[in-house]
Amino acid sequence: MYEVGIKREVICQHYLIGGDWGHENCPHSHHFVIEMILSSPNLDDHGYVADISKLNVALERLVDKYRDRLLNDLPEFDGLNPSIENFSRIIASELFEDLDRRRFSQGMIKVWEDGQSWASYRETFI
């Protein structure tokens, strides 16, 4: 299985709801790192899993959408705790909808909240 991945950094804010998480219940910023990893059993005619330059454009556009925003205020988080688990699924649904899913077996989005903590969402296409 081949894999290719890219990542971007973004600073945005959130606050957690539905529980008592101390300072996490108040608006605060995170320096998130968002990774996108695509898997394929085959390479294309150019020897690629995917054109990394196209993936970079798509991820950068999405990161710009969230940059310096309060996640709680965005419609995609309406009624959801803006956890990194939910954030990874939301990003995946937006990024993967524009992919030619026949080319890939899986896609994964990993959102790092800091240098030690992350959550991911994986989707199987084939």
UniProtKB/TrEMBL annotation:
Pathway: Purine metabolism; 7-cyano-7-deazaguanine biosynthesis
E.C. number(s) listed in UniProt: 4.1.2.50
Catalytic reactions of this protein: 7,8-dihydroneopterin 3'-triphosphate + H2O = 6-carboxy-5,6,7,8-tetrahydropterin + triphosphate + acetaldehyde + 2 H(+)
Gene Ontology terms for molecular function: 6-carboxytetrahydropterin synthase activity; metal ion binding
Claim: Cell cycle is one of the keywords in the record: no
Record InterPro entries: 6-PTP_synth/QueD, 6-PTP_synth/QueD_sf
UniProt keyword terms in alphabetical order: Lyase, Metal-binding, Zinc
Keyword 4Fe-4S listed: no
Family: Belongs to the PTPS family. QueD subfamily.
Protein name in UniProt: 6-carboxy-5,6,7,8-tetrahydropterin synthase
Organism: Pseudobacteriovorax antillogorgiicola
